[in-house]
Design brief:
heterodimer; A: 758 residues; alpha+beta; Beta-Lactamase; Heat Shock Protein 90; seven-stranded antiparallel β-sheet; six-stranded antiparallel β-sheet; 29 strands; 24% strand; disordered N terminus; B: 159 residues; alpha/beta; Rossmann fold; five-stranded parallel β-sheet; 7 helices; 5 strands; globular; disordered C terminus
């Protein structure tokens, strides 16, 4: 075990918690209850405590220590070790009394007692500890930012420990570290700002660092001391030294330290949410021992700093966060005011970019993508969106180096190396993508992180810790500035807010639709009932005028009779208007009875009827191509043709009148996408050589009771014919419009789908 | 021979007119009056009164005050119980359903027309707006029901 070659290739698997070795600056005894029998010891006991291992093994601890000390150890075992270590231990050796810091802990069934010789001057008590640590803690708490706190900590720890160099080292998500604070002897090269690759602190070391708050290597050139026997007799396995303060470290780590020129090292864990956040790392160019009491103080500082990490991080970028919050507020306000939230987003324009400090954004809806600011070429966006969709987790995705994950992005890395994507609705395919440009960055590494491989003299390839810790610069391409956690958070929140807005809008829309439906049907029945009730008094006026003429014929003169006739004529006109209104309102309410209808036949019948009713006029009816058969309400469409043809003839002062009925087979419905399931759409027209309609009246001709001429011209009429045409076309899901040239004629167009409305 | 002449000179059966509009009723009366037949008319102003008359309830409890009509002329839009309901009641009543009902109304709504015939109405006439057509409609109505047709008066009366 002890001499098994460990290099960087198996470094992650090295069982560093059971090295079977300790550092030589103290002695370690493994004890078994109930008698505290010594079952395993470090082989340096003779040098350190004056008894060779063979004298100790198998003996009870009472053979070595006075009963009072054993009682202290037993009491310590029954309590929390943290509060009682170190124990004051004295061992007689010849005439001298050797004094130790005793550190005891339980490891499963075993008890581990470690003895570190006390320094001569050392005399720690609680009050001294309190005095020394109090100022440091106040500084930690008062520091406004993470960096200022780290600065105080490195200074304080260096003052207390006397190390050459004390650093705060922060891990990123990948496990790479960066020196964010440093206090050092003037002569040393600064490490501040340097990065270290994840391989510098292997996984199982990270694991141990969360169990142990502090590790000390007083002399990096030490010769490790083996435990005897190698396996403890209780379970015949190497004793687990995870919690041991003397545990020997990996030979690779020692090589690393020696390559770096470090003679002594101490590291204190910084832990946030049970995870290793970083380290307070202390280096000294020569060997340096730190007494247990000072280590305890440093550990305490590390714990206080750990607690404060969350506080300080929350205050990081506070102003920026406030700005984002206020932007987000504006955002939601604007969204809730626009009818479609996507329109609202687009209107936000640069605000949308400011929200996450992006330089471009793409708002993706099911069928189109809207770009704001600087974005990849529009032709690239659909594919990018489709790829991003596959990457989304918890409604979002972010990267600062898109081209590494999505090689097609290399061509537009200058504008979009960073992508932050928010999924608003998977169903509706609504996404927002934010883009950040490439920022060519220089990373300063503590040594070349890419070259742990070296070739030995024998030509063997070997991985070993790098020898050089000179600043090694790497230029990072295809990367943007990273998306800050607060930016990602604001985007996640934004989604919830958008969802609330959308739900509310859907709610409102449903309410409006219900209301509309109700008011439409009310309006229809209103028109119907009102028309009926209007008719009764009207009929009274009509009848009584006639009674007057009948009963008082001999009293009335010609003028009186003429006036009464006018009253009668007006009542008849009013009845026509009421009937039109009734008919119109009935059109709106009657259910369509749709069936395949041969329009050629319908048109012919309408023409025949017209010819019969106006036998005196000679009109040429032109049908350039046979009309198709479509799915529609025959009665209504027949009325439509009759109304249009009647108008065409009526508003015509030419000697040779003609009317042409035709159609064009236009694009597929609306979208024009050519979906074979879409019904064919026909555009029909009725063209005449009549008087035409002035352009300013083109829209008005469809208004109910809107007439362009007086009652006496063009045979009168109620002015409902085209309104009824429009209603019929709309009820069939089509559109109607008119083109006209004064004096030359008009063309009325209307669209009808071959298969009609569902 | 003498029996036959007795039958012919018998007074025409009662015409019950259910009509709320005084003007419409006056117009109707005016042209009925011009008929050579003398037709006894009784007018009810609304549906509730008509039902009381037909069922002989309320102020029509005395059968003398509510003789059986030979024909009912019914307006559809009436205050209170409307004409459609009156028609339904008449046509669901085993005795009353024998009396022919002619709907005489403003409504030309196809739904009303269909519903009335479904209930068993005997004729449906839309009140014409045109004075001359009104005159003609009423003449035809009287001629048809009181001259051409034989009404089931005898069947109803001895009840």
């Amino acid at each position: 075990m002890t001499n098994q070659a460990v290099d960087l290739t198996n470094c992650d698997r090295e069982p560093i918690h059971i090295p079977g070795l300790i550092q030589p600056h103290g002695a370690l005894l493994v004890l078994q209850e109930p008698d505290l029998t010594i079952i395993q010891v470090s082989s340096n006991t003779l040098e350190s405590i004056g008894h060779p291992p063979q004298d100790l093994l198998g003996k009870p601890l009472s053979a070595l220590l006075a009963p009072k000390q054993i009682a202290t150890i037993r009491q310590c075992l029954s309590e929390d070790f943290e509060h009682v270590n170190p124990l004051d231990i004295a061992i007689k050796r010849a005439a001298k009394l050797l004094r130790f810091d005793g550190i005891v802990h339980r490891q499963k069934a075993l008890i581990v007692l470690e003895l570190e010789p006390k320094q001569k001057s050392q005399k720690a008590d609680f009050f001294e500890f309190y005095q020394r640590v109090k100022g440091t803690i106040t500084k930690i708490q008062k520091a406004p930012t993470l960096l200022e706190m780290s600065d105080s900590v490195v200074k304080e720890v260096r003052k207390v420990t006397g190390f050459d160099r004390v650093m705060v080292y922060q891990f990123d998500a990948e496990g790479a570290g960066r020196v964010i604070a440093e206090d050092r002897a003037d002569a040393l090269t600064p490490y501040l700002g340097l990065h270290y690759p994840p391989s510098d602190v292997p996984k199982q070391a990270m694991q141990l660092y969360t169990l142990n708050w502090l590790r000390l290597i007083p002399d990096s050139t030490y010769e490790p001391v083996a435990l005897v026997p190698a396996h403890n007799p209780v379970d015949d396995r190497p004793t687990d030294l995870s919690l041991s303060v003397l545990r020997s470290v990996s030979p690779l780590h020692l090589e690393y330290l020696s390559n770096m020129g470090v003679g002594a090292s101490m590291s204190i864990s910084l832990i946030q949410d049970q995870k290793l956040w970083g380290l307070i790392a202390c280096h000294h160019s020569t060997p340096r021992y730190v007494p247990y009491s000072v280590r305890t103080m440093c550990e305490f500082v590390g714990q206080v700093m750990s607690v404060e990490l969350t506080n300080k991080e929350a205050h990081e970028d506070l102003d920026y966060k406030m700005t984002l919050k206020s932007l987000q507020g504006k955002f939601v306000e604007s969204l809730s005011q626009s009818e479609r939230f996507l329109d609202g987003l687009i209107q936000l324009d640069s605000n949308l970019l400011d929200l996450v400090s992006a330089s471009g954004a793409a708002i993706c809806a099911a069928d189109h993508i809207t770009c704001i600011g600087q974005t990849p070429p529009e032709t690239e966006l659909p594919a990018l969106r489709d790829w991003v969709k596959t990457q989304i987790q918890h409604n979002q995705f972010e990267t600062r180096s898109l081209s590494q994950l999505y090689p097609a992005a290399a061509s537009f890395k200058a504008v979009a190396s960073g992508v932050l994507a928010l999924e608003i609705s998977q169903f509706h395919q609504n996404y927002i993508l934010w883009f950040r440009p490439e920022v060519v960055q220089t990373v300063n590494w503590g040594g070349n992180p890419n070259k742990p491989v070296e070739v030995t003299d024998s030509g063997e390839r070997r991985l070993s810790p790098r020898k050089s810790f000179e600043k090694w610069q790497e230029t990072l391409q295809g990367c943007s500035l990273p998306w800050k956690p607060c930016e990602i958070e604001i985007v996640t929140e934004l989604r919830s807010l958008i969802v609330v807005v959308i739900l509310k809008q859907a709610d409102d829309l449903a309410k409006i639709n219900l209301e509309l439906e109700r008011s439409n049907s009310e309006l229809d029945s209103f028109a119907y009932i009102a028309s009926h009730d209007l008719k009764e008094p009207l009929r009274g006026i009509h009848n009584y005028s006639n009674f007057l003429m009948e009963d008082y014929a001999d009293v009335l003169d010609a003028d009186g009779v003429a006036k009464l006739n006018t009253v009668v004529r007006l009542t008849q006109r009013m009845e026509d208007l009421i009937n039109s209104l009734l008919h119109y309102s009935r059109l709106g309410r009657a259910e369509l009875s749709c069936q395949p209808t041969n329009l050629a036949e319908v048109a012919r019948q309408a023409i025949d009827t017209l010819k019969i009713s106006q036998p005196q006029s000679s009109i040429e009816f032109r049908l350039p191509c046979p009309l198709p058969t479509i799915h529609c309400d025959r009665t209504q469409i027949s009325e439509l043709f009759t109304n249009l043809l009647t108008n065409a003839i009526k508003y015509n002062d030419k000697a040779e009148k003609w009317v042409e009925i035709g159609f064009t087979e236009s694009d597929r419905m609306e979208s024009g996408k050519g979906d074979p399931e879409d019904p064919l759409l026909y555009t029909f027209y009725v063209r005449d050589n009549g008087i035409g309609i002035p352009p300013q009246h083109l829209e008005r001709v469809f208004q109910i009771f809107k007439r362009l001429h007086t009652q006496n011209q063009y045979g009168g009429g109620t002015g409902a014919g085209l309104t009824i045409v429009q209603k019929i076309v709309e009820r069939h899901g089509g559109k109607v419009w008119v083109e006209s040239t004064i004096g030359e004629g008009s063309t009325f167009y209307f669209t009808l789908a071959a298969r009609g409305q569902a | 021979m003498s029996e036959l002449s007795i039958t012919t000179i018998e007074q025409p059966p009662l015409l019950l007119v259910i009509e709320d509009s005084n003007e419409d009723f006056e117009a109707f009366q005016r042209y009925v009056g011009r008929s050579p037949l003398t037709i006894p008319i009784y007018r009810c102003l609304d549906g509730d009164e008509a039902l009381a008359f037909l069922y002989r309830t309320g102020r029509y409890a005395d059968p003398q005050s509510a003789p059986r009509p030979g024909l009912i002329l019914l307006d559809l839009n009436l205050p209170g119980t409307d004409g459609r309901e009156v028609l339904r009641k008449i046509k669901q009543d085993e005795t009353l359903k024998l009396i022919p009902v002619v709907v005489f109304t403003t409504s030309n709504n196809p739904k009303d027309i269909e519903a009335c015939y479904r209930q068993g109405v005997n004729s449906y006439i839309v009140k014409p707006m045109d004075f001359n057509r009104l005159k003609r409609s009423i003449q035809i109505l009287i001629d048809y029901w009181f001259d051409t047709t034989i009404l089931p008066t005898d069947v109803v009366e001895p009840r």
